[in-house]
């Protein structure tokens, strides 16, 4: 179900975000041993015996591995530049139901800035990047989130913390607000557009050239 909730103002949105942070304050990415176990299982399925073997690392290079847990999506990739000490980078989104709507929330416990996605964001991401399903849209987005740097651009003159966040495939529209909880900020993502859909003003702000 798409999010039809209308926030009255930035204070209403901030209160909503604080509620999520307080109700789910222990939410965090899985522990390193979870990913190591998952990685060993993954390469075994692909016919490899050791993570650090040349063939295994060649297969893992630039590859994002996705897992779906009950109520959550998990993605990770392995930095294979140091053969004997590969490093795992990971992210996760947890599905949270608030007033019959599903929100997707990144790690809270161990982050200074928390991502909260309205369901509308992934419906538009699916539509505009032509993913086959909502699940495909979410894991596809997570892959780009892990593999590429993304930049945040405050909208000049906004009184509600409006931001544009530039990703590989487009731009997320949202609001950034402080919460007063352990110094944490929240970026609440409302919707997604491709680079081609940006206005000239938005294109200039996020430094995207006209195609």
Give a structural overview:
This protein is of the alpha+beta class and 211 residues long. It contains six helices and nine strands, in the order H-H-H-E-E-E-E-E-H-H-E-E-E-E-H. It has two domains: 10-26 and 94-205, no CATH class; 32-89, no CATH class. The model has no long low-confidence stretch (mean pLDDT 87).
Rough shape? globular
Sequence of secondary-structure elements: HHHEEEEEHHEEEEH
Number of structurally distinct domains: 2
Cα-atom radius of gyration: 18 Å
Order of strands, main sheet, comes to: 1-2-3-4-5-9-8-7-6
Largest sheet: 9 strands, mixed
Mean pLDDT: 87
Helix content: 25-40%
Give the percentage of residues in beta strands: 25-35%
Enumerate how many helices there are, as a single number.
6
Which structural class should the secondary elements be placed in?
alpha+beta
Separation of the first and last Cα atoms? 34 Å
Please count the beta strands (DSSP E, at least 2 residues each): 9
In short:
The protein is of the alpha+beta class. It has helices at 10-23, 32-45, 54-60, 119-129, 134-147, 200-205, and strands spanning 64-69, 72-79, 87-98, 101-105, 113-117, 151-154, 162-166, 170-178, 185-194. The chain has a 9-stranded mixed sheet.
